[in-house]
Queue: 2 jobs
Job 1
Amino acid sequence: MAIRVVVLASGTGSLLKALIDSQDSSFEVVALVTDNAEAGAIRHAATAGVQVAVIAPNDFADRSAWDLALADCIDFYQPDLVISAGFMRIIGDEGVNRFAGRLINTHPALLPLFPGAHAVRDALVTGVNETGSTVHFVDAGVDTGQVIVQKNVDVIAGDDEASLHERIKVVERELLVEVVKDFAGAKKYFGQKADR
Ligand code: GAR
């Protein structure tokens, strides 16, 4: 049976859409959880009939209340795998601990280079010849978790942040789908999904 995937996204949601479009017998995107009620990702989810939950920080008294609500919301969908795919907030200890080993993030740079929210801009400003994409497990740090897979993307003369980011996202979509299918295969192999 398919593993259950919950996607976290804050913006356009092209990575979410790629995951939705690549669903097969090995995995199902069961929900989008977003911090942003205006996220374009919501439209992709709704079009595909994927459930949507908005957990907006402003609706909570403080950071720890939001952390707990986010983790509880993700848990509600009983995910085998949680993917931060353009989720532009730090996931707190509550979520990191609860979903350890099944919480992954995609980042538009070759970590440990250029962590944080402006990875593509930082790569351009630094003047590197290549950057890329990293899929990694999420730990308590900012983009510091164990790397699962990375792929290079050349920086081309005349690139601006948008053009470079768009080429990186092409690679991110491929890597994410590959990782999800590998994860689903491993789960089946180890017999952890016998009940689904
Ligand atoms: C992706 O490049 C993702 O790696 C990045 O946001 C983009 C989302 O694209 N995430 C981060 O920078 C997190 N630090 P999308 O909205 O088109 O899916």
Job 2
Amino acid sequence: MKKLEEILKTWEPVIGLEIHAELTTLNTKMFCGCKLEFGAAPNTHTCPVCLGLPGALPVPNRAAIESIVLAGLATNCDIEKHSMFYRKNYMYPDMAKNFQTTQGPIAFCMRGHLDLDVDGANADERYGLADLKPGESADNITRTEDGYVAHVGITRIHMEEDAGKMVHIGGGEGRIAGATHSLVDYNRAGTPLIELVTEPDLRTPEEARLFMQKLRQIYLAIGISDCSMEEGSLRCDGNVSLRRRGTTELGTKTELKNMNSFKNLHDGLLYEICRQAQVLEEGGIIYQETRHWDPTAKRTIVMRVKESADDYRLFPEPDLAPYDLSDEFIESVRAKLPELPDDKAARFQQEFGLSAYDARHLVEHRSTAQFFEACMSDAERELGSAAAKLAKPLANLAINDVSGWLNANPDAVLDESPLTPNRAVQLVQLVADGTISSKQGKEVFAAVIEEDADPKAIVEDRGMQQVSDTGAIEAVVDAVLAENPDKVEQYQGGKTGLIGFFVGQCMKRMQGKGNPQIINELLANKLDA
Ligand code: ADP
Ligand code: MG
Ligand code: ZN
């Protein structure tokens, strides 16, 4: 198959996402009082309502309505005061009622948007970016210094309920194919679920991944879901089609299921774009179908041909009264909105003088953003206004070292780790004042976590103090130059790359403790003299 870069010259990919989030932070289900609990013994959290027994009447969970309004406000949606629930009819054993309670044409939240910051290598997938200068706009993007901002429309966020869970016994990998029998667990049936649908505004797999990531950050910040992609509390379907560059009519789309990680979402869409391009270029047609991304085989396979909306015979739910949300209710929810990631990034830039890039990456994870702030207040307590110059190194520590460590140790909890804010401040200070080099800083970082010790003590115990005494370094530099007259001659004859050799020799004599900046300066002075 052709590479994306080649395909983009002829075809424009169009992507829209449907993202389901379970409201896991609520105590009870959507229409009954059953407890919400992941991993409980099968069928221990059920009742006549969520089992769909005849005559049982649903009662909506007010806290779930608050959660979806919060989600709508956090994603710039209009909150619809008047909306209602519908029945989406289908028969499958995981839904004992034989219909899903969901919303119709008008959802609680309509017409929102998110702006995505795409930078660095992530921006490379966007076609035609090089033609724009910073500040210039085309389609839904605006070029920035290090990438672009994409404006992505949100069609709606509606409220619905989850189905139960089927377990197929006897087949391979829990699949239904080859199974001898199936079991059903209704604990999940009736779990409050919100589904966000985007406009077909995304153009690259990377934008899709970033949208999902940003939405996850927002949902975590407002506390409506634990957003675990492994446990399925955050799920994403990717819709994708191609159209000839320069045309506006949408092509036929396929829908990818099983996008249970950011990487799967990106890779699945990328594959599907390449597959569709090949089909179209060979004169074939794309069928509207649901496909499954198989990350191991690295391909998508057909699951089913799309059913039409009519098949569900959607009709208003007669057991639930239409909603009439009051202004007071909406305002009381708005008052609960915490600081959102974008606002936090803007504040970090303003308050601590961080670059837009650093601020944006710092707020990607709530724990690292919180850690950075705790470090800054620690530094300010001890150093007053002098703390300002530690903002950049502390941000780097949080974005690179701390995030890297958390990624490598998914079970680690930063708050309970040996790396306290106070130790982090000590560490960056030791580097900032030249006591240790930045390379040694990495070693001390690892040692703090490993040994649960203070950076100062580690540096002392290991005798790591960097030698910054110019006199002492000069003596070493002189000795190295005197020992290598041939290399000095070559350097002065134009082989300036030899500087690395001289630095290395000086470092070796000083057991790696010489201040590299001073060594470089002294060498340059003497060699270029
Ligand atoms: P369906 O009825 O198949 O669920 P919708 O119109 O509800 O389709 O759209 C579902 C998602 O697919 C939305 O995110 C939408 O933006 C996206 N979408 C719709 N048409 C296309 C298309 N031709 N190509 C890519 N994405 C599309
Ligand atoms: Mg749909
Ligand atoms: Zn129940």
